[in-house]
Design a protein that fits this description.
Elements: E1 2-10, E2 16-25, E3 30-34, H1 41-48, E4 56-61, E5 64-65, H2 74-78, E6 81-85, H3 96-105, H4 112-124, H5 140-152, E7 158-162, H6 170-185, E8 189-193, H7 197-203, E9 206-211, E10 214-219
Length: 226
């Protein structure tokens, strides 16, 4: 499903973000990526949805070699991927329902099927009755639920999340991770970069730890710390 082979990423001015990373993630796995700020977690996530390309090495996601992928192929590849960000990245001039529907409309979907699927997803993420609200009328936790609904509405093969609860309180964070776990139970491969120590410790999923751009630990049922 996901394979990184001898992957390094060097940014401008010679900043080394990842250093010869090797890892494999199988279909249906739930993986936490942990480590201190600046360790390379966000860069790893960006490589997986082709926001960045490796300086060296190979990144293969869902059968696609992202280093050799042509630009026109990227939007079609990303239809297989759902991405959730710490800052939500919602469209603030659109309602909850419109934000979620946007992920379908850009792929050409239209009509009653879009409405039906959007309303189903709103119910799944616990926002029933809030479909006509705008993002600035929602709490942070509610906005993240919208972001998750938008990421999942196309039934992606892979869900990537970069610090999805970084701005949320512990109780809300746990609720958000339970939603993500639910997607995993239904077959979506999940990769989450996080500092949420209490969540990682309680869920006991696979944990990959990164320090200074290198993988230093890979535990099948790990905790935040070694």
């Amino acid at each position: 499903m996901i394979r990184m082979k001898d992957v390094s990423k060097v940014y401008d001015a010679g900043v080394l973000a990842l250093d010869r990373v090797n890892l494999e993630i199988r279909k249906g796995e739930f993986v936490f990526v942990v480590g201190p700020s600046g360790a390379g977690k966000s860069t790893l996530i960006k490589l997986l949805y082709r926001q960045e390309v490796p300086t060296e090495g190979q990144v293969v996601v869902a059968g696609n070699d992202l280093g050799t992928m042509r630009r026109r192929e990227i939007p079609y590849f990303r239809r297989k991927i759902g991405v959730v960000f710490q800052d939500f990245k919602l469209l603030y001039d659109r309602t909850v329902a419109e934000n979620i529907a946007f992920a379908l409309i850009v792929t050409g979907a239209a009509g009653r099927d879009v409405i039906r699927r959007v309303m189903q997803m709103i119910s799944v993420v616990g926002l029933k009755g809030r479909q006509n609200a705008y993002p600035n009328q929602l709490s942070g936790g509610e906005q993240q639920r919208v972001a998750i609904a938008r990421a999942l509405i196309r039934n992606p093969e892979i869900l990537l999340a970069d610090e999805p609860t970084g701005n949320l309180d512990p109780k809300t964070s746990l609720e958000i991770f339970r939603l993500i776990e639910r997607a995993n139970i239904y077959g979506t491969t999940v990769v989450v970069a996080t500092h949420a120590r209490h969540i990682v410790d309680s869920m006991r999923k696979r944990v990959i730890e990164i320090k200074s751009g290198s993988v230093v630990r890979d535990d099948r049922r790990g905790a935040y710390d070694r």
